[in-house]
Amino acid sequence: MKTLIALILIFSTTTAFAEKSLEIKTHVVKMAMDGNNMYRLELREFAAVYHADEKFAPCLQTSIKEKKQAMLKVTAQSLVVLECKVN
Amino acid sequence: MKVILILSFFISFHSTSFAQTETAMGMGYPSGFGGFGSGMGFPGTYSGSAPKTFDVSGSPDISIQIGDNKKSISCSLDAATKIYVCPNSGDTILVKPSTYGFSALGRDEKKAATLLNLSHIEAAGKIVYDIPPMPPGFGMGMGGGYGGYGDGSVKPNLTKDLNLDFRTRVSNIDEFFGTGSPLRDERRKKGSADYEKVVQSFMDEKQNIQDVIKKIFNEKNYSVELDDGQKVNCERSSMRELNEQQKYYRDHMSVNFKCGAFKCDPIKVDGKEYQVTMLYDSTPGSFASGSIHLMDNDGIGPEKSIKKIFASQSATPLLDNSYYLENANKSFNSNYISNMLPASLKQDRDKISKYKDPSFEQLIAYNKSICDDSDKALDNLLEGKKKLVSKLANLEMAQFIQVLGGGSLVGQYVDPTLAPQLGCLYQGVYLNEEAARNLDRLKKNIHPDDHVEQTISLERATELFNQAAGMKDIAWKYKPDGCYARAHLMARRFEAQGVRVDKVWIKGDLYVPGTGIEWNFHVAPIVYVEDDKGNVQKMVIDPSLFEKPVTVEEWDHKMAKKTAKGSVVAAFPFPENSAFMERSTLSFSSSDPYLPRDNINMSEADKMEQANDTMSMYKAVEPK
Q1: Which of A23, B12, B110, B519 is most buried per CB count within 10 Å?
Q2: Which domains does chain A have, with CATH numbers?
Q3: CA nearest neighbour of B286 among B17, B112, B32, B29
Q4: For a pLDDT cut of 90, what percent of chain A falls above it?
Q5: pLDDT at position A23, please?
Q6: Which of these, B575, B593, B434, B405, lies nearest to B507 by C-alpha position?
Q7: Rounded CA gap, A12 and A6, in Å?
Q8: What ipTM does the predicted assembly reach?
Q9: What is the pLDDT of residue B287?
Q10: Is A76 part of the contact surface with chain B (CB cutoff 8 Å)?
Q11: What is the pLDDT of residue B213?
Q12: What residue in A sits closest to B617 (Cα-Cα)?
């Protein structure tokens, strides 16, 4: 029983601290590599600097070059891209 | 026409140039290198390039011909691996069906592993495949698509350096056998004893290449030939202790950290002596071409490029950039950047374009994390870069505003000598044809009306500020983004109370110290406050950053900038290349624009809907 309570506590604590995410539709305007091998993104419909791992480069580039809307899943506070889709 | 082309280049630069991922340090390799050279089509019987599988599964024996050699070589199927073994005067060839036909692994005239051009195959007396040999440079192998220079537009007469040799020979073997990692090596299908003997000979060759090249690529000293023929000796800096994360990568992911910063002999240019640093990622198989940097007390010196890098143990250079130096003096990125810069920079233009390349700082940061920089060579390079690019900050630039095809407004800084050819001049700003056509709609945004009748007192401004801060539908606690939505909702609500509202915008490489907030731009509503003496001042209402109305100067100073120069004022929409030109830009507009790249056809209802949707989205994630 104690173990169960401890597990529930751990679960609820980690859930509370886990960063929420947002899904945004946007056009990527610019991507530039920073010193940490992450891309700094400029999005047409948003003001903040967003960050993306190298693995999202093809998707982000498609949005830039073909001027297509990208669907980005991002962390709500640190603005790091978790998923990228371009139709 | 030329002007239009240049202009398109200017504008597209900021949309595309940094999108490149390939270029790491200097010159990129031609596209299609080592890839599938599809798209050329096979002449003759099998014209077209559509993938096709050739079924020879019923034939335990086949005969093959290589290139234009008419000699037939007999092959027997190794049943376990489905690979044909073709004894050929001691240099056994292996042939296997592949997506596009067949691949053949054998040896070239120097006995080095290579993928061969199959030109003819017969199975059970029937011709299975027959094509003329490919001309040099179209080294696809028979339908295999491996090796060679896939992009036929690239001339293939590249000097073969050890780096290229490493990539081609090892990757030929790995691609054929599907090997290349411990797991993949283990999963390789095993065949008969005869077949395994042949495989072992290729694996031994691979191991030999790797051993020799790894040793050479780890050497501490290299001799470097520069593009002007000068030769310098360069010594690799020592490694510093890796951090915990790097140790983890090294120990668990086989990442080989190796300092890529070299201190070279000083060299003289026009009688002046310069300290020389080389940045070169000497990892076998790396696409890096290396870069050389001259410094003296005045900062970064003249431009030099690396032609060849030699190790003491090998007469063949590790790296040979001759082809690229002859055919493309600068990197793809540098060309883009160079074309963005005003001609008035003269000789600094090439230097700035080299150091503005984002990969430069990335390279310095990486090497600083693993190299001992006790002589501050890397720090000095960074300082030199800052000093060099700061020249951009004081350049006089013209502002060009366009309405693009879809109706989007875009502002840019452009070379003032080119600007008059780009469009017509309106109050100090150049407009393209579409913008000029829509001038009646745009002019109150380009320069808001300075004559303000609806001024308010500071008390009233404070009242509006408090009112805004209390708006429950605005996500004030969500700081990272959403200023445009907040600004629009506030503006319309203040206006509904009869207050004149405009907007102030700032563009640059912005951050708010101590908050982790980084913005490409920021916007807030402004009201006009009149004091007892009749002086009118713009005051910003921005509860996301302040606790009371503030002047534009206070608002501007709250945001730190990573650019060399502070803020300058320009018309709206602000130039998007402000940060590139090492400055931040303040612009004023009416309350109408919703985003800096506004679509001029966007309705007010759409703007309000977007503003409300954005706030709802951020409300759901704002801290409690």
Answers
A1: B519
A2: 20-86 (2.40.50.340)
A3: B29
A4: 59
A5: 96
A6: B575
A7: 10
A8: 0.82
A9: 66
A10: yes
A11: 76
A12: A22
- Tell if the CB–CB gap between A65 and B16 is shorter than 8 Å: yes
**Tens digit of pLDDT for each residue in B169-199?**
888 899 899 888 888 888 898 999 999 999 9
**What does the pLDDT look like over B330-346, one tens digit per residue?**
454 555 566 678 877 87
Give the per-residue pLDDT at A2.
52
**Amino acid, single-letter form, for residue B29:** Y
Decide if A47 and B481 are in contact by the 8 Å CB cutoff. Answer: yes
**Per-residue H/E/C for B347-401:** CHHHHHHHHHCHHHHHHHHHHHHHECCCCCHHHHHHHHHHHHHHHHHCCCCEEEE
- B21 to chain A: which residues are within 8 Å by CB? 33, 54, 57, 61
Question: Residue A47 is nearest to which of B15, B21, B519, comparing CB atoms?
Answer: B519
The average pLDDT across B225-239 equals 94
Q: At B296, which amino acid appears?
A: D
B357, two tokens: 């390349």
Cis peptide before B182 (omega within 30 of 0): no
Interface test with A, best of B362, B520, B584 (most A CBs within 10 A): B520
CB A5 within 8 A of CB A27: no
Whether B16 sits inside 8 A of A35 (CB atoms) is no
Contact B316, B110 (CB under 8 A): no
Residues of chain B above pLDDT 90, percent: 46
Give the DSSP H/E element, type plus range, for residue B441. Answer: helix B439-446
Size of interface A-B (CB pairs under 8 A): 74
**B97: which 2 tokens?**
């069906």
Cross-chain Cβ contact B362/A22 below 8 Å: no
What's the whole-number mean pLDDT along residues A21-26? 95
Tokens representing residue A82 in the block: 């978790």
Does A33 score more than 60 pLDDT? yes
- Of the candidates A30, A35, A48, the beta carbon closest to that of B481 is on A48
What DSSP state is assigned to residue B408? Answer: B
pLDDT at residue B266, rounded to an integer: 95
Closest CA to B117 of B98, B132, B128: B132
Say if A84 is an interface residue toward chain B (CB within 8 Å): no
Q: Are A28 and A63 in contact (CB under 8 A)?
A: yes
Tokens read off for B373: 């920089």
Domains of chain B with bracketed CATH: 44-209 (no CATH), 218-393 (no CATH), 445-619 (3.10.620.30)
